[in-house]
Amino acid sequence: MSKPIPSSNGTTYTICVFTENTIGLLNKITILFSRRRINIESLTVSETERKGVSRFTIVIQHEIREEVEKLVRQIRKTIEVLTVFGYLNEEVIYNEIAMFKISTLSGAKPLDIEVINKIYKAWVVFWGLDYVVIEKTGSINEIFDFFNYIKPYGILEFVRSGRVAVSKSSKSLTDYLPEAEWEYYL
Amino acid sequence: MDLKEQQGADVSFNSDSQDYTVQTPEQVVLNGSHAVIRSLLAEGVETIFGYPGGAIMPVYDAIYDYQDKISHILVRHEQGAGHAAEGYARLSGKVGVCLVTSGPGATNLVTAIADAIIDSTPMVCIIGQVAKHLLGTDAFQETDVMGVTMPITKWNYQITSADEVPGIMAKAFYIAKSGRPGPVLIDITKNAQNEMMSGPFEYKPCSSMVSYRPRLVPKQEQLEKAAALINSAKKPFLFVGHGVQISGAEEILLKFLQKTGIPCASTLLGLSSVAVDHPLYMGWLGMHGNYGTNVLTNQCDLIIGVGLRFDDRVTGDVSRYAKQAKIVHIEIDPAEIDKIVKADAPVVGDAKAALEMLLPLVEPASHTEWVAEFAKYAEMEDRLITQPELSANSEKIKMAEVIRGLSDKTEGQAVVVADVGQHQMMTARYYQFKHPNSFITSGGLGTMGYALPAAFGAKVGDPERDVYAFIGDGCFQMTIQELGTIAQSGLPVKIIILNNNFLGMVRQWQQLFHEKRYSFVELQNPDFITIAKGFGIDGHTCVKREDLSQSLDKLIASDKPYVLEVLVEKEENVFPMVPSGACVSDIRLQ
Ligand SMILES: Cc1ncc(C[n+]2csc(CCOP(=O)(O)OP(=O)(O)O)c2C)c(N)n1
Ligand SMILES: [Mg+2]
């Protein structure tokens, strides 16, 4: 049986939150979701091209666009938040990374590296004694296609990074906050 | 909110030579605790409401040296400190400041912080915390106050080194008072209170932040769109919210009403911004508001909401709320726009600034016929509810008589603080406010026990004004210990207990919606006057109608704090009423 792509009801939204890098901010942001009973599908945080500015990429599913807009405005209210954007899938370029730990015990079905590389664009990044770690970057669909392909070989561990995304707009971040203010973080 | 840039406070200090300082030829180095107090002084803070304890002792030690410059008021429970700071802030417009210890001190303050955020009250709470190296070890009186208060503060921050103090305090005050005001909590670890700053104390007030930029001046195109709706409306209706008082927009609002001829009504926290005898003042809105204002909400063709958030106690069933009307929503907090009611013309900005800029854009008008429509509802409400309440010949006195009695005797000029319950709604109905900035109550949170400490704080905030608190017998017992604070201060706070021997508001709901199944609402009360006297506060009980006037005179005349208990009708109900879940035009008169 092939593993279905995880999904709940509603439209997928990618919420990008730019914040100062302070302790506890992750909490301040996620409690805004839990208070409204909005489940977070994935969340990643990293520092941006600006020192001291973090970027949260939060993916949620929701049936009502207005509720997502209200949520975005509430996030924007958080003091340390610099700016927030809510996107539909078609408004962003997004991807995730997945890692698969696959058993290579003697007697196991031998891996077909060529298929893995050429068809699935996945790469072995670690050779262990009795397992390998394969890394696959792509959309959720691509990751789950590969998941279904590799499953019969015996998956010991599987992890997805959650979505990272950049907007399709040609603006840079500094268009949203004047350059002079960004210098504050340099 | 003043639109001008905050002027930098004068922060030059004489260098002194106390033990806590390290004196170098040209500068004074302070420890974190002294830096906290110096920061408060630099912000112009005159009063702190607080309660000491282990984790805040260094700061208390520092205050000892500044007693001539800053007044510290010792409350009897940290919740009292919080509500007192709220009352202080609400009346004076300044930031209320609380100082408490870690753990239980902090958790006792939580209710007041939650109250302050929902009622947009500026407050800075300074909380002691265990030393940095003990954080996360379940040390004595360690509570994760940052975690606990994240959802109920406008901002919170943990200071773990003395050098952070001035910068963070400056931010705290700026955030608390600017934009939509709210509570800020500063958790300061004990080591940060004790250690010396690495350089001289310098205080720069904060007047802008990259990550927080409240919009005060609205966008011209938003104003123009709003003006177009206002100018073409046939039956416009203006709602006065708390934002009018917070921004000091009362005067410009009167000019706006006068020019446009638009009738207005008030939310609970907007009360007193427009005098009740203003010809365009039609009453208040919501669950226990007036008859006409609620019914005609569903007949007007335009609502102009000024500094309000369309709370569910105002709207009733939103799906049947003013569907026929266009909405102009003037509000400083963009997150309030479209939150409950979709705005056709949102105007994001300070209420005062918005009205000032809107005034030249609106055409002079009068809406005589539309205004006249309110009269028939007012007449009906007066005949069926108000007059019977005020001229009852029941055996027991009615709340309405007491409140209207005080209203008449004070000519509607007093500061009135109401607690939470029937007496609160009755106060809003029967006190005839004629002076702006005169009504203080817990609106959004409905915090029983708010009134006694808030009335005290209000009196501290503006000692020139007379402050009266209407408090239910249930509410009084929630923060009754603050009688001690009031007695110690000697400030003439006037307290009226409207004693119906019931948790009356809950009893009313049980009567109306739970077939009179009175489930745990009857109180066996103590002798309140004996208790007051035990605290050193004089008072008396009024039982008979013929004694009421004299009783009020005695309360008013006292130059000390005074408690007047009035035994009122036990099973009286507040009407009109929009039952919860009903729509505003289905308001019940009985
Ligand atoms: C802290 C708190 N607990 C419970 C309630 C629910 N509640 C609202 S009004 C009320 C009764 C208040 O009784 P009282 O002070 O006697 O006023 P009354 O309604 O009788 O005038 C209660 C229990 C509340 N608002 N706040
Ligand atoms: Mg009662």
Index terms:
heterodimer, A: 186 residues, alpha+beta, Alpha-Beta Plaits, 2 domains, 4-stranded antiparallel sheet, 5 helices, B: 590 residues, alpha/beta, Rossmann fold, 6-stranded parallel sheet, 37% helix, globular, binds thiamine diphosphate, binds magnesium ion
Quick summary:
The complex is a heterodimer of chains A (186) and B (590). Chain A is an alpha+beta fold and 186 residues long. Chain A folds into two domains: 11-92 and 164-176, Alpha-Beta Plaits (2-Layer Sandwich), CATH 3.30.70; 94-160, ACT-like. Chain A, domain 2 (Alpha-Beta Plaits, 2-Layer Sandwich), CATH 3.30.70.
Describe the structure.
The complex is a heterodimer of chains A (186) and B (590). Chain A has 2 domains: 11-92 and 164-176, Alpha-Beta Plaits; 94-160, ACT-like. Chain A, domain 2 (Alpha-Beta Plaits). Helix content of chain A is 25%, strand content 39%. Chain A has helices at residues 25-35, 65-77, 113-119, 140-150, 179-182, and strands at 11-20, 40-47, 53-62, 81-88, 92-103, 122-127, 131-138, 155-160, 164-167. In chain A, strands 5, 6, 7, 8 and 9 form a 5-stranded antiparallel sheet that branches. Chain A is elongated. The model of chain A has no long low-confidence stretch (mean pLDDT 90). Chain B has 590 residues and is α/β, with parallel strands linked by helices. Chain B has 3 domains: 3-194, 3-Layer(aba) Sandwich (Rossmann fold); 220-370, TPP-binding domain (Rossmann fold, 3-Layer(aba) Sandwich), CATH 3.40.50; 395-568, Rossmann fold. Helices cover 37% and strands 16% of the residues of chain B. In chain B, the strands form 4 sheets. A 6-stranded parallel sheet of chain B has the order 4-3-5-6-8-7, sandwiched between helices. The radius of gyration of chain B is 25 Å and the shape is globular. The chains are: A alpha+beta (186), B alpha/beta (590). Chain A binds chain B through residues 19-20, 23-24, 27-28, 31, 35, 66, 69-70, 73-74, 76-77, 79-82, 177, 181, 184, and chain B through 146-147, 150-151, 154-155, 158, 175, 209-212, 333-335, 337-339. The structure holds thiamine diphosphate and magnesium ion. Residues 419-423, 446-448, 472-475, 498, 500, 502-506 of chain B line the site of thiamine diphosphate (TPP).
